[in-house]
Amino acid sequence: MEVVEKNEKQVLVLSVKGEIDLHVSPTLRAALQAKARAKTPRLLLNLAEVAYIDSSGLATLIEYYQSARAFQGKFALCSLTLSVRSSIELVRLTEVFSIFPTEAAALQALSAS
Amino acid sequence: MSRAPRQINSGPKKIFQPGEVILEVRDLTMVFGDRRVLDNIRFQVRAGETFVIMGGSGCGKTTLLRCLIGAQKPTSGSIHLFGEDITRMDPIEMDRIRLRFGMNFQFGALFQSMTVGENIALPLQEHSEVDPSLIEMIVKMKLELVGLTGFETFMPSALSGGMRKRVGLARAMALDPEILFSDEPTSGLDPVMTAVVDQLTLDSTRKIGATAVVVSHDMTSVFRIATRILMIGNGPRQGQVVAEGTPEEIRKNPDPFLQQFVKGEADGPIPLRMAQDDYLKHLLGDG
Ligand SMILES: Nc1ncnc2c1ncn2[C@@H]1O[C@H](COP(=O)(O)OP(=O)(O)OP(=O)(O)O)[C@@H](O)[C@H]1O
Ligand SMILES: [Mg+2]
Questions:
Q1: Are the beta carbons of A63 and B138 separated by less than 8 Å?
Q2: What pTM was computed for the model?
Q3: CATH code at A49?
Q4: Could you identify the atom of ligand 1 that is nearest to the CA of residue B72?
Q5: Which of B13, B126, B137, B206 best probes binding to A when mutated, by most A CB atoms within 10 angstroms?
Q6: Which CATH number fits domain B21-100+179-284: 3.30.70.100, 1.10.10.10, 3.40.50.300, 2.40.30.10?
Q7: What are the φ/ψ torsions at residue B131 (nearest 5 degrees)?
Q8: What is the Å distance from ligand 1's center to B58 Cα?
Q9: Distance in angstroms (rounded) separating the CA atoms of residues A17 and A11
Q10: Over the stretch A17-50, which tens digit does the pLDDT of each residue have?
Q11: CA–CA distance from B286 to each of B34, B188, B273, B279, B280 (Å)?
Q12: Best A21, A55, A94 residue to mutate vs chain B (most B CBs within 10 Å)
């Protein structure tokens, strides 16, 4: 798994590449925990190049969602593949995360808030 | 939908794309004493399928699943799971394979001294480095999948039979297996819960790309989920493949044995009882 970081419109965008499973979710978790410690005000995860996410990956996202909520940080996901979208739907988390079809739409929503 | 190659640091592993043969059974025979329980079974399962095994009580379905997960060594024949013959594997190699499949046992097989949550968490604690706080969330997600949100602190003895079965299913899915083996996952469930479990199987295979091998007698459920069906016989056809095909092919197959089973009729070639003579001999003890 690879994570590429950039700043755009006052939003920190993490673009993740590769499958997120038991073996790699600890790496994603470490990256997100660092962002939580820094109280990142606006974080966007671009998952366009994530073909698969397992339960440990989903739990990692929930954990970040919870910490961001505690410091009132904004958090969103964008550009989900069909498989990742299905995994999120299956455990009924679509209501929990802010999900946008494209990075542009997500950036607009996050920077406006 | 195709699943991209998985980047895994647990050693080389072949990647299975939808449609590739992920399980292949050749000439599998299982003999207990002088009883030939499984007789020359052969079939293939492709990644992304829901392969249903059906057949009368005692025809050898559970025995077959036990062979497929390496819990029982067949008398002869081979079983290629993820491309490797598990009948020739030593226990250490088998442990590596075991992480890639889940088994939902016919009678739940829960640890009675552990709570529901502890039962589901066990595979994650034993086989992964996932943090306990994340495991707790995964347990909750798996319970939600099987309609049991909020039951994590219950002991198995405080659940109904159908609830226990669903906990068994949640535990089998704890590690998000590439193949899920499920032994009568819907028996004892009400029609609504049956539909929930069937939908879960369908979503896991069609949307997430997993593969399911399901033993079932529930015809509504079988025709709802199966991509292919294998029927195993009993009586004079004990442990033999009676038919194999798509649900459509199975419906149209004129084999009287198969039709009696699919339609659930009492009259037909499936032997329900011993011949009158055999029964009387057995009862009266003069054989
Ligand atoms: N360890 C064993 N030793 C001797 N016989 C066995 C053993 N395991 C299973 N059998 C026999 O194999 C036959 C098939 O049993 P199995 O449990 O596989 O049937 P099944 O198709 O799963 O039946 P059901 O639908 O009732 O669950 C039975 O006659 C059983 O007695
Ligand atoms: Mg059985």
A1: no
A2: 0.87
A3: 3.30.750.24
A4: 1
A5: B137
A6: 3.40.50.300
A7: -60, 140
A8: 5
A9: 19
A10: 999 998 889 999 999 999 999 999 999 999 999 9
A11: 22, 40, 19, 11, 8
A12: A55
